[in-house]
Amino acid sequence: MSSSMVFAEDVSDDRSSQDNTLARDYNDNIQTASQQTIRAGSNSTAIQDTINSLSDGDTLNFESGTYTDICIYVDKSITINGNGATLIGFDSPGVNNSNIPTKVRATTDEGGYAISNFATVYLLNASKITMNGLTIVGLNSTTYSNAALYTSQVNGANINNNTIEGSSWGIYMTSSPDGTISNNIIQNQKTTGLLNFGSARTLISNNTIINAKNHGIDVRHGTGPNVQIINNTVIGSKEGIYLMHSKGHTATQNTLINCTISSITCYGSSEVNLYDNTMRKSRIGVLLGGGYSNITIEENTFQLDNLPFPPTFVYYVASAESDYQSATDDIGVYTDSTLSEEIYTNETDIPTPKEISIDYDSILTPTGTTYNVSSEATSTDIQTIIDSMKDGDTLNFAKNAIYNDICIYTDKNIKIIGNNATLIGYDKLNNENVPEKVRNQSANGGYAVAYYAVLYTLNNTQTVISDLNIISKYPGYNPTKATTTTDEYKTAGIYADASNNLTITGCDIEGASFGIFMQYSGDSIITNNNIHDQYTNGIINFGSPRDIIANNTITNVVNHGIDVRHGTGPNVVVFNNTINGAKEGIYLMHSKGHMVYNNTILNGRISSITAYGSGNEYIFNNTMIGSRIALLLGGGYYNVTIGENEYDLDFLPFPPTFVTYIAFADSQYQSAEDVQGTYSDGAHDSPSYTAPATIIAEDLTSNSTKFNYSSTLKDRNGSEIANETLVFEINGESYSAITNSKGIATINVILPNGNYTAVVSFAGNDKIGKKTEQSTISVNSPNAVELTAPEIEMYYKNGTKFIITLTSNGTGIANESVIISINGVNNTRTTNENGTINMNINLNSGEYDTVVYYEGNDKYDPAKVNSKITVLSTVYGNDITKIFKNGTQYYATFLDNQGNPLAAGTTVTFNINGVGYKRQINGSEGKAKLNINLNQGKYVITAINPETKEMGSNNITVLSKITENNDLIKYYRNNSQYVVKVLDDEGNPVGAKQTVTFNINGVMYERKTNESGYAKLNINLPPDDYVITASYDGCNVANNITVLPVLSAGDVDMKYRDGTKFVAKLVDGNGNPFANQTIGFNINGVFYNRITNENGEARLNINLMAGEYIITSSYNGCNIANTIKITA
Predict the structure, then answer these.
(1) Do residues 222 and 179 touch, judged by C-beta distance below 8 A?
(2) In sequence order, which ranges of 53-129 are alpha helices (DSSP H)?
């Protein structure tokens, strides 16, 4: 990183030797400007007293050193020279904000500034305050209202060459126009690095912002114009540059790196110019949202976050228009604007999903000959057993056994029963470890598989893989360098190809690039698996139609949780899965006909659900929590139907960051050249008023129970309107129909004899306003029958019948077929001699909407009735969240099929993390307990009732005892430290003198916590990348440590004695030029010492003979080597 740093030369006058200087005031009087020095170790009160003694034009100099528990304010036009001093703020604002100076927090009536934000340093209500050379450390807390440096009502502020560390906001600048913020390092903020709130004409340049969680640079609510954002570097924010509800800004020559959602976002902003920026490794280049207008995008460099085959595509520009910015506005059907003029319709005709019933008892029952695998077996031993098996046989692993260095395959139709055995793969990518038949080309009798996996299933049908723990140790890959030939990219826990009717259930899969990679393996079942810690995707379904992907938990996956692509479809069903932490939770790509529902997607770093180039999709009843974008549609999507979903998105309060319910990345803007242009939100073109439509809904009398009912839709001029949806509400049931060329919409209705009100409504569109009308329908049929189906409530499988009765004038009608539709699944039964049907109910617990339908015949009219079946559970518990290994445990209640608690002492079964446990009921309430001693993470626990055989599931969340652990980027041997916070069993800080163990670079260290529960480790390692592990009471966390070099130089190519000098550059611990320091040089076996100048440069004359030499530069243990070539 040091080689790309920008060094700014200090051109200010050197006044260190002057006690007084002369300055001219506005009245042209001569006045004395003084300098005051803050001695190292001074407390906050002493510093504030010195500041209060200063006058406009004075200078405040800090001695180099660390100052703790600081909260000070400056409301005078002074210059502050930090000289490398570090100001560390208080741990809290104090009781009743007592740590904040009285004048800062006092009301304006009391002579104060009425500021509620907590900061280490405040700049307030003055002009031309200059501050440079300070390190300011803010409150290390997620509290939203704190800042390291807070600036308000300061005109012409100059904040240069500082390091701003931590806090919620690094620099919070409000109502402070005409300022300059330049050459600062701002890092590790919980919210935003630099916030410019209503501060017009600010120059923000040459700053480096690292690991600001939300926004790197945030410019908002300025009247503008001309906030200039130039030549800044932002690394690791959600949105690199965020321009909101303001106008007239320019962002140019900025470098945005690893910004997870977008490199640049314009939300409700206007008259913005974006050009000559470099956007690296974000999935979205520019995101436009919420009423933007006149956003001009010129030539920029896009190096976005795409992946090779199987590819993940990127979005040069995406838009989130204001029409769709609520949890219900996004309901509708969407098509890419490049494919159709009709890009949106508010019709959401989502078919009811069919009930899916999986017979696990049959699937998991061993068949054929059972081959047992001993706990001592090697990979070769296991493969030999599989090779000897026949179709229909069963492979049975030893219970809880652990097998190392495994790479096996099956191309037979067998069942693999894991019994909680663990298969650990190789830790190296060696083709010789892959079975010959897997890797050989097809011409040589092989399957030509290019992927490395622990377990392959190939060219078979009805294979079952269950209850296995699969751990892949294959190394990860660098996403910036991954290509189709990168072996590290092509690894999997389970790899399936041409394996139809495959079942993978109850497995725990850890590591690899892909957890489950399945291609061309249709009609398969992937359920109840725990998949985690993949470098790319948890599950990828490639060209495998009609698969069921359900009840899986997928966590800590880098790219996609569940990826469904290239299937001709239809009917890949993705439901009831939990995905936490992927960039895009569910990814539907270049395929069609899928149903995605009842999934929970947590903390999607880009979006919860993405549809890229896919169509005829149904997305509904999902829960999306913690992502900034809920739904992302891109690259040629069509007929994507969004139904009702539940959202709790990544919104922040005042000053707010808004969320995006749905964003579009149409294919016409998906290249660096195509995106150049000027953009405005489509909502601006909508008129403010539309005249309501006219609905003609006439009364109707029918002499049959089954009939058609029609209404006509017209505009205000009486012209019929075609291809619009009318909704009919009759007798508590809703119907919809599309108007034909004459504006007529017709529905088919079945009603018993009686009088009904029909409510007909039109929702409106951008040209015609909404409208509702009513009419009366009378049904008087001599052939009507009476069809009854009373609602029932029952306990799980207790034998209660669902009773349907079909009569005519009180007499039962025998031998007639009746259709019972339960949750969309039809069942046909025949009435007995009394006209009655007694239907057994074997449904899982839950509520089921039921429709009973009689088709009628020549003698009787049709009939229909709605009902409900409620099945009560006989086993249930609550979700729990607990601290690692504390006293919180899981309880479940068990009932018999009449609702009575099972007796004390009854043995019940729990299954969690793939392991089964037996426990006894204790007491008279049917409760049993299972102690939870798992590592931190999210789990699904299943309780099994021994009497009714019902299974109930809950979520278990185990929280780490080690928190606030962050990756660290620091300069070599500066004062930055790795810090963690340790919690007790109740989630409170542990207090002082608790031992935490750190492991970095293969060396163990023990450190004690302070009174607040924090433990820290000084990092004095050479420049490089490291992984550090912190351990406490059996709990472990890991982070990345990057140590940046302070010494840099370039190779020299010169002529003999042409005067060229070898130049080494030195920066201090804050990245600033480091003057008056000795650098040692070793060339040709001779040692030289040189002193750095004001630019941090040490120069060495080169007078050697022609040849090639290695020169070594050294400073404080840091060494670098360069080449000097001299020609005659």
Answers:
(1) no
(2) 102-105
Name the nearest CA neighbour of 281 among 302, 304, 300, 265.
304
Q: What are the structural domain ranges in the chain? A: 2-213, 326-347+537-657, 366-535, 696-779, 786-872, 875-959, 962-1042, 1047-1127
CATH number for the segment(s) 366-535: 2.160.20.10
Can you read off the two tokens belonging to residue 13? 């006058």
- Domains 2-213 and 1047-1127 equal at CATH topology level: no
CA distance 678 to 243: 16
**Dihedral sign, Cα of residue 1049, residue 1055, residue 1057, residue 1058:** negative
pLDDT at position 10: 31
pLDDT at position 18 is 32
Residues contacting residue 52 through CB under 8 Å, at least 6 positions apart:
none
Q: Classify residue 30 by burial, with Cβ atoms within 10 Å: 0-12, 13-18, 19+.
A: exposed
pLDDT of 350 reads 67
The token duo for 228 is 């200039």
The CA–CA distances, whole Å, from 827 to 351, 385, 797, 802, 806 equal 18, 45, 18, 12, 16
- The per-residue pLDDT for 817 is 95
How far is Cα 142 from Cα 132, in angstroms, rounded to an integer? 27
Cis before 653 (ω within 30): no
In contact, 499 and 412? CB cutoff 8 Å: no
Contacts of 564-567 with C-beta under 8 Å, sequence gap 24+, read 564/588, 564/589, 564/591, 564/594, 565/310, 565/540, 565/541, 565/589, 565/590, 565/591, 565/614, 566/310, 566/542, 566/590, 566/591, 567/541, 567/542, 567/543, 567/591, 567/592, 567/593, 567/594
The CATH superfamily holding the domain 1047-1127 is Immunoglobulins (2.60.40.10)
CB neighbour list of residue 785: distance below 8 Å, 6 or more residues apart:
806, 807, 808, 813, 854, 856, 860, 861, 863
Three-class secondary structure of residue 919 per DSSP: strand
- Look at the block and give the residue holding tokens 């034009």: 57
**d(Cα 562, Cα 584) in Å, to the nearest integer?**
9
CATH of domain 786-872: 2.60.40.10
Percent of the chain with pLDDT over 90: 59
Q: What is the pLDDT of residue 660?
A: 57
Return d(Cα 559, Cα 513) in angstroms, integer: 10
For the segment(s) 875-959, the CATH number from 2.130.10.10, 2.40.70.10, 1.10.630.10, 2.60.40.10 is 2.60.40.10
User: What are the Cα distances from residue 872, in Å, to 145, 473, 794, 842, 845?
Assistant: 47, 45, 6, 12, 5
**Ranges in the chain, pLDDT < 50:** 1-32, 311, 322-324, 326-327, 340-346, 653-654, 656, 658-659, 671, 675, 677, 681, 683-690
Please name which of 497, 491, 466 lies closest in space to residue 477, comparing C-alpha atoms: 491
Q: Which CATH number fits domain 696-779: 2.60.40.10, 3.30.360.10, 2.40.110.10, 2.30.30.110?
A: 2.60.40.10
Q: Which residues contact 95 (CB under 8 A, 6 or more apart)?
A: none
Compute CA 182 distance to the chain's CA centroid, rounded to the nearest angstrom: 32
Q: Find the helix or strand (DSSP H, E) in which 850 lies.
A: strand 846-854
Which contiguous run of DSSP H or E holds residue 333?
strand 332-334
**1121 class by beta-carbon count within 10 Å (0-12 exposed, 13-18 middle, 19+ buried):** exposed
Strand partners, 160: 132, 182
Which architecture does CATH list for 2-213?
3 Solenoid (2.160)
DSSP SS3 for 1070: coil
CA distances from 1127 to 47, 687, 1052, 1121 (A): 59, 75, 11, 20
pLDDT given for residue 708 in this prediction: 95
Domain 962-1042 grouped into CATH 2.60.40.10? yes
DSSP-derived 3-state class of residue 131: strand
Q: Which residues contact 382 (CB under 8 A, 6 or more apart)?
A: 373, 403, 406, 408
